[in-house]
Amino acid sequence: MTAAEPSALALFWVGVIFLSLLVYVVLDGFDLGVGILSTTVRDPELRDEMMGAIAPFWDGNETWLVVVGASLFAAFPAVYAVFLGAFYLPVLLLLFGLIFRGVAFAFRGHGGPERLWDWGFGIGSIVVAFVQGAAVGAIIGGVHVENHQYVGGAFEWLRPLPVTCGLGLVVGDALLGACWLVLKSDGSLRDWAYRRLNLLAGVTAALLAVAGVGALIELTAAGAPGAGRQWAIVFPIICWLALLGVMRGARIRNDATPFKMAVLFMISAFLTLPAIMWPYLIPYRLTVADAASPDASLSFLFWGAGLVALPIVGVYTGLVYWTFRGKLKRAYAH
Amino acid sequence: MHFDVVMLSRIQFAFVVSFHIIFPSFTIGLAAWLATIEGMRFITGNPIYRRVFDFWLRVFALCFGMGVVTGIVMAFQFGTNWSVLSERTGPIQGPLLGYEAFTAFLLEATFFGVMLVGRNRVSPGFYLFACCMVSLGTMFSSFWILCNNSWMQAPLGHSVVDGRFIPDNWWAIVTGPVVRVRWPHMLFAAFCTTAMCVAATGAWYRLKDQWAAEADVMLHWGLGLLAVLVPMQLAIGHLTGDYVHRYQPAKFAAIEARWETQKPASEVLIGWPDEKTQTNLYALSIPKLGSYIASGNWDARETGLDAFPPADRPPVLLPFLTFRVMVGAGLLMLAVGWLGVLLALLGRLAKSRWFLWTTFLSFPTGFVAVICGWVTAEVGRQPWVVYGLLRTSEAVTPSLTGSEVVFSLLAYIVVYAVVYSFGALYILKLLRGGIEGPGEVLLSSMGGLTR
């Protein structure tokens, strides 16, 4: 194991990847959540309204996953290779989820068996969220790597901790989605979403507790550096406080509070990960310095993509959200 | 054929890439076609162009969605099935694919929305600008992909340290001699494919005696573009052949089914290469022509497959056949284009039902040519994934098991069959609906916004 310090360029790109991942988790989180919730609705008008509440945003939100994937392949190819090799079957499920979600939006309204594409969107969303959560849960205990390649089995991601994390993200995203609907809609859809906040927040808190204990056991067993970082407990505590904030927002019926609190929850839940993993990108085999591409690759990418394209993605994302600010009316389509 | 993890992964890659390439080869062309037709509307103000535009925009929206999702699958294939390739060539392939995501995705995502729902919200000039940007985005996308693929076909501008490919000269990698011919070859393939589809749709409506004015616009533009673009494509294709001759001699020998080095070399026009006996069955060949095609003189010495150790030889049958189908498809499109222009000049185009039928039935020719061209390029470079440097058999993910790949391959087949049958059905529905097809369909594709 080398103790080399990562170069400034490697730090820049790891920063970009973590930040993009955080943006992705929050933004795609709410539209995955709305997709997950859409499977529980019978009323087609309510469902159309739900789809309308994410229609202008979901495509742009997913772009951040592409940013993460592309940056990872370019800046840390060893991580890309190990991660996708280790999660062969879950990645397959993720791709199918993304395919069905993507075409469902394009195919809706063209006919076909009734509700086929609604189910495609809903189940696709559940699968995507579950796989993403499970992947996080699976790497906490460490990944089997030799010579920069994965050497473990095909089903190591299907252990109790990953499954808990997967369920946790499904429910957590659903919570975020419900908060988004409260923020962006009014009338019956907002009431519908308000009625689900307490239950979703409660289940999320419970799954978080179970996952937290499980993670601590696996971290200690793996001898991970994160196990000794007692300050890292700050993040789960903020998570629980934020969930209480969601419930309070629901009680006083302030439309913006639940979403703000749910975003705070997502951010602190996400920050737990670097807090317990740093400086590893693949626990506990490859550090940032080990996995980084040569500087010739990192700087080539830095001048065009990092310095020019990435800020434009940020500006564009901001513009879309600004254009569609406030409560969404159906009239936006025309 | 031995069905191990490598062969199964290759079949899987071939399956997903063949499905994927159908969409970009159509959408690159359609985006350019939409920008052209919108430009014509902007200049002339002719309402027919607007109607033709709106019609093709609906088709574009469906194809674009399917192209994007199948494209994401391709990027992940590198990591899931070819992780050794990813790890070793990541310092070069990663930034190239990264630039595709950052530059092309950005343009497309930004302006595609304007194209779909912005007609009444932005000025006509800005709308035309948005169409051009989407078209530019699709071209950027193909540029980076061709850069990446061309580097694997003829690697340059790098050094190898501990088995990893480290970039030394990005300028050489991005503007190499191979990229310079293969990118235009792909662009023109897409343009020709779309021109053929536009002409075929016009011919169909003419045969049905519906939407005659719009059908004529499609026929004239489609056939005219074919008449001009196909000869240019044949010339670029010839340059592509030159690069193969120079950089990938084993592939060139396989395409020509040239088992032995010859001086002068004959050209096998048609035949059935037999790998067991290393001969060509039922062959029709012309003496000396092979030397002329390859080297430009009548008695040049041409390398045969016997110049390479058996382990370094590509399969012969597939590149030989697909290359000939590709060229045949190109010649067919040329004939349709030139004949169409001739008939149009004589004023007999709309009355020649046999020609309208020919044009209509030729609609898949471009797709056939594109897929065959890719098979020629990709099978012909075997057994190398990075030509001469990294074998395909050494690039596969080490932890992968045969049952995982069998399962995923079957799953891909099922999912693609479901999704793309519906996609094809909806596109057919749009084409049947014709010019006056339901306008709301387009908006409802943005979600349940219009209900």
From TrEMBL, chain A:
Keyword Membrane (UniProt): yes
UniProt keywords, alphabetically: Cell membrane, Membrane, Transmembrane, Transmembrane helix
GO terms classed as biological process: aerobic electron transport chain
Protein localization: Cell membrane
Family annotation (Pfam families): Cyt_bd_oxida_II
Main location: membrane
Membrane topology per record: Multi-pass membrane protein
Transmembrane segments: 12-41, 87-107, 119-141, 161-183, 195-217, 229-247, 259-280, 300-324
InterPro entries: Cyt-d_oxidase_su2
GO terms for MF: electron transfer activity; oxidoreductase activity, acting on diphenols and related substances as donors, oxygen as acceptor
Cellular component aspect of the GO annotation: cytochrome complex; plasma membrane
Domain of life from the UniProt record: Bacteria
Sequence similarity: Belongs to the cytochrome ubiquinol oxidase subunit 2 family.
Protein name per UniProt: Quinol oxidase subunit II protein
Organism annotation: Methylocystis echinoides
From TrEMBL, chain B:
Family to which this protein belongs: Belongs to the cytochrome ubiquinol oxidase subunit 1 family.
Top-level taxonomic group: Bacteria
One Pfam family recorded for the sequence: Cyt_bd_oxida_I
GO terms of biological process kind: aerobic electron transport chain
Protein name in the entry: Cytochrome ubiquinol oxidase subunit I
Cellular-component GO terms for this entry: cytochrome complex; plasma membrane
A Gene Ontology molecular function term of the record: electron transfer activity
InterPro entries: Cyt-d_ubiquinol_oxidase_su_1
Keywords associated with the record: Cell membrane, Electron transport, Heme, Iron, Membrane, Metal-binding, Transmembrane, Transmembrane helix, Transport
Coiled coil: none
Keyword check for Transport: yes
Topological relation to the membrane, as annotated: Multi-pass membrane protein
Listed transmembrane segments: 12-34, 55-76, 96-118, 125-146, 186-205, 217-236, 325-347, 354-377, 405-428
